Amino acid sequence: MSARGEHWIAGHAEHAGGVAFRAYDPMTGAPFGPEFREATSDQVERACVAAAAEARQFARVEPAARGALLRAIAAGLDGLGDVLVQCAVAETALPAARIAAERARTALQLTQFAALVEEGSWVEASIDHGDAARAPQPKPDLRRMLVPIGPVAVFGASNFPLAYSVAGGDTASALAAGCPVVVKGHPAHPGTSELVARVIVKALRAARLPDGTFSLLHGRSHQVSSALLRQPAIAAVGFTGSFAGGRALFDLAAARPAPIPVFAEMGSMNPVFVLPNALARRGPEIAHRLAVSALLASGQFCTSPGMVVWTKGAGADAFAEALRAAIAAGIGAPVVHPSIHTGYERALAEVKALPVAETARGSAGAGALGVRPTLLEASAAVVASRPRLRSEIYGPAVLGVDCADAAEMTAVAQSLHGHLTATVHGDGDDLEQHGALLEILREKVGRLIANGVPTGVEVCTSMVHGGPWPASTDARFQAVGVTSIRRWARPVCWQDWPQDLLPAELRDDNPRGVRRVVDGVPR
Amino acid sequence: MSARGEHWIAGHAEHAGGVAFRAYDPMTGAPFGPEFREATSDQVERACVAAAAEARQFARVEPAARGALLRAIAAGLDGLGDVLVQCAVAETALPAARIAAERARTALQLTQFAALVEEGSWVEASIDHGDAARAPQPKPDLRRMLVPIGPVAVFGASNFPLAYSVAGGDTASALAAGCPVVVKGHPAHPGTSELVARVIVKALRAARLPDGTFSLLHGRSHQVSSALLRQPAIAAVGFTGSFAGGRALFDLAAARPAPIPVFAEMGSMNPVFVLPNALARRGPEIAHRLAVSALLASGQFCTSPGMVVWTKGAGADAFAEALRAAIAAGIGAPVVHPSIHTGYERALAEVKALPVAETARGSAGAGALGVRPTLLEASAAVVASRPRLRSEIYGPAVLGVDCADAAEMTAVAQSLHGHLTATVHGDGDDLEQHGALLEILREKVGRLIANGVPTGVEVCTSMVHGGPWPASTDARFQAVGVTSIRRWARPVCWQDWPQDLLPAELRDDNPRGVRRVVDGVPR
Q1: Taking CB atoms and an 8 Å limit, are B258 and A469 in contact across chains?
Q2: Tens-place pLDDT, residues B22-53
Q3: Is A468 within 8 Å of B448 when comparing Cβ atoms?
Q4: Can you tell me the distance from the alpha carbon of A70 to that of A169, in angstroms, rounded to the nearest whole number?
Q5: pLDDT above 90 coverage of chain A, percent
Q6: Calpha distance B104→A315 (Å, rounded)
Q7: Chain A residues lying within 8 Å of B442, measured CB to CB
Q8: Which one, of B202, B201, B192, B184, lies nearest residue B106 by Cα?
Q9: What pLDDT does residue B460 have?
Q10: pLDDT digits (tens, 9 = 90+) for B194-250
Q11: Catalytic residues of B
Q12: What is the pLDDT of residues A436-452, one digit of tens each?
């Protein structure tokens, strides 16, 4: 099986469409593979209308069947074997081992959501019994749980062709919640998107679930995205990508006659703060780990560390030297898409026009889209006065900021906008001595890391992969882990409703055995 | 103690400001009481800067102290005695008994939030232990809980001078979460707002909590609201009011360089569906209860039923006759503010210009702002083609819609936008026979009521007081009940963080004894 250049609209393959485009090989710099066509507004509309028409039917599907669907998709991804890996490698130039690991993560996400819906307590069922004898007014019987919100638009990410694309975390969580999904595939990997779409369509068919539950639309221009955002059927949006892209979707969604939420995970610098004892005792080791983290996948991780802050003093020179050496020795693998290559070069040019020194430059590895790792250094005063230095350069660039003292370091932290993570390296009493800094960082990020690196996002209940604007559009929610299902659900309360017409989770006999809060007490 | 015409900005009273205005007596139609002045942009800014400056300090306050603060405010409201009731009655013309009951509800809300934060589990603590031996990568130790988001802007509501105003549900939940609050008081009851503000300021002082935690600003024009929305310090907004007001705030918030969420509860018609058996067996009784609910407080409840739908057939005429009689016998108490009076008359004129019959009109009671209860009737076909008929008339108006059959009734339901509630009256197998209707309604509302009235919002865990747009801006959240605290909090994850620097809720020894999810299992 190989990609054919097809959209999948409510169970049916369609090659037709608007402007043609092909995948791009980051190694050769040449387009390759079948011709894909931009989805037309008619195709976008048909996908969304089908999703809306069958949303009710899909919402009614028993949790066990939704779980089985998610497990079947996970199995289907494995079943594609090397074909999927080869396709994704060819389209993204990411290493085969990375793609294989990403497929395993994608399957894990699907099975975690399967387990979540099979267990069932995620609906947050709650019962408050009535009291007919209460004065002056009888107390009604009230029962509440989460219900799916309706069709979700998912935008595939360039940097995770599997885990945050067609069957990635957004799709898995939306299907788990009971919402149909319309995916707009990322044009960097249309073939991978198509292969995965077929797996989903096949799993829906095998389970005799409604075709309208899933569609994949291809597109390279903004027109497809804005047509999708304008569809009245779409109830919410999941997006992982650039600030510009996320903000554009957010603005489109807010301007609708009936606005919808956009859960966008956008840029982040993931600043790293190296405190004095750590700097003095293990500066070079920290510099080395930081560089490895920053250069991973050529900096194409959301959690890639793009800023490191330290104070002058013991170990500072050794740290800076080690960081320069590590970046200079770095080799930049090809990035996924020409637009990322262009964006990296443009961002470097913008920053280098400011009072910033380029203190190390690695080499671009093989491939047309290879990029050079870059270390830039600036004083805290310059960083404070130039907002551009406090926003992301997407790619393998690190901005080093040396501060005169702890107060200046704290001021840098205070000047930051929202980021996904902040990392602090501290030995001895470093952390205790920098309480104000830690408090500020807590206000700025979704995840605080001690003595580690920000890359490597564990998929578990306690993970937070989101943060204050512009790290994400709504820091209450996130795209990683099972709590991400909450984006696609809202509470409904049934008042004095007959037992036999209540959802199973709210009946007295609790046939699904879910955890509930009964009269205010967890059971 | 009586009102003096004062803002309270970070612990200090200020009379100065821009354009002057006074409270308005709905009985006499005359302004009365002290002169209030619109807050200037400088005053707005000072309130917000003070809130931001002390937000960190307030976030650090122990849960027990936050609980004590909320209880002190509740006690302070009681302590105002008749002065508060008389002031609110004079400003709103709501009956003294209603105001006293509302004060009790307000105090209940405050003490419910006190209990919530004292118990502590609302932070949704979760721990995933690390595993240094895991291959290929060690598993980090991850711990997560909710933290306050920062200063919250609260807009007082006209229709709940206590329960959804200065110390109402929005303020109580925000303070409980650990967020400072800047209230923009509703100009319909500035004196009431001022009296309540003094209680909060006094409670903060007595507890030696930061002054910047609370401010009250007065204002009658949009300028004060938009100045408040533009303040960078404001992290979120709570609003209860009209669709136009909520949408304006939503748009301002979305257009900010860093957008913030607006949790607005806007208009709702709370449609009522009377099914055939119920119509035949107890139509007149249903009509009577419906009219009582619709005329309560002259229709100034968010949950006031403004639409009733039934099918032709046995009992239909008797139902319609009884409804007409009940509305014709109704006496409209004065509404709270001249703008509501004007809005009601304008909305009636708009609707009466459509193919709609005015079939009953009650009388306006005493008072300059008395309004006449009104029953309008239209066919399902007219309702389907005229969106104006499917949106709220704020005041004591009911639109009756008679349908040819169940299919037409279902079509009416399908044409509705989001509402807070829907009520269904059904006897025998009515509900079983109308499964499609019930499914549609579930998609349209936050609360489904069987054989009751929508007014009367129980304050408990299972209540949902929100709904799809435009009932509220974000149906995931609500303004009633303890779950409303989630609006003002976001999750943060601590990775490999030292035990003694973790928040108490996340330490191994769990000193606050909160419920947690540990390695995926609730404890």
Answers
A1: yes
A2: 999 999 989 999 999 999 999 999 999 999 99
A3: no
A4: 11
A5: 95
A6: 63
A7: 147, 492
A8: B192
A9: 85
A10: 999 999 999 999 999 999 999 999 999 999 999 999 999 999 999 999 999 999 999
A11: 265, 302
A12: 999 999 999 999 999 99
Q: Is A302 a catalytic residue?
A: yes
The tokens describing A313, both together, are 């003093």
d(CA A221, CA B326): 59
pLDDT tens for B463-505 read 999 999 999 999 999 998 899 999 999 999 999 999 999 999 9
Cβ–Cβ gap A492/B147 under 8 Å: no
Output the six-digit token pair for A507: 């009946």
- Give the separation between CA A331 and CA A329, rounded to whole angstroms: 7
Helix (H, G, I), strand (E, B) or coil at A442: helix
Question: How far is the C-alpha of B120 from the C-alpha of B112, rounded, in Å?
Answer: 12
Nearest residue to A308 (alpha-carbon basis) of A465, A405, A453: A453
Q: Are strands A445-450 and A419-425 parallel, antiparallel or unpaired?
A: parallel
What lies within 8 Å, CB to CB, of A389 at 6+ separation is A351, A354, A356, A378, A382, A383, A399
Indicate the DSSP class of residue B131. Answer: B
Residue B266 has which token pair? 């806007």
Of A229, A264, A223, which Cα lies nearest the Cα of A247? A264
Sorted by sequence, the CB contacts under 8 Å of residue B455 that are 6+ apart come out as: B293, B296, B301, B303, B304, B305
* Residues of chain B with C-beta less than 8 angstroms from the C-beta of A506: none
Angle, helices A81-92 vs A63-79, to 10°: value is: 70
Find the closest chain B residue to A481 by CA distance. Answer: B520
Contact list in A for residue B475 (CB cut-off 8 A) is 149, 490-491
Q: Predicted confidence band at B523 (pLDDT cuts at 50, 70, 90)?
A: confident
> Smallest CA–CA separation between B268 and chain A, in Å?
14
Helix axes A96-119, A81-92, angle to 10 degrees: 120
Which member of A54, A194, A265, A505 is catalytic? Answer: A265
Contact A491 B149 (CB under 8 A): no
- DSSP element (H, E) containing B14: strand B12-14
Look-up: residue for tokens 């360089």? Answer: B257
Other CB atoms within a 10 A radius of the CB of residue A79 amount to 12
Cα A445–chain centre separation: 15
pLDDT tens digit sequence for A398-426: 999 999 999 999 999 999 999 999 999 99
Sequence-distant (≥ 6) Cβ neighbours of residue A211 within 8 angstroms: A10, A11, A12, A50, A54, A201, A204, A205
Query: What would the DSSP string read from start to end of A355-394?
Result: S-EEEEE-EE-SSTTB---EEEEEEHHHHHH-GGGGS---
B456: chain A residues, CB-CB within 8 Å: 137, 140
- If pLDDT is split at 50, 70 and 90, which confidence band does B360 have? very high
d(CA B303, CA B288): 17
For B355, list phi and psi in degrees, rounded to 5.
Answer: -70, 75
Structure tokens at B283: 């139509």
Is A226:A252 a contact under the CB 8 Å cutoff? yes
**Min Cα–Cα distance to chain B from A418, Å:** 10
Q: How far apart (Å, rounded) are the C-alpha atoms in residues A189 and A184? A: 11
| pLDDT value of position B136 | 86
> What are the tens digits of pLDDT across the range B243-284?
999 999 999 999 999 999 999 999 899 999 999 999 999 999
User: In the structure encoding, which two tokens stand for residue B271, read together?
Assistant: 């449609």
CB A125 within 8 A of CB A185: no
- The pLDDT score that the predictor gives to residue B5 is 97
Active-site hit among A6, A302, A392, A403: A302
**Cα first-last separation, chain A:** 50
List Cβ neighbours of A364 (8 Å cut-off, separation of 6 or more): A331, A332, A370, A371, A372
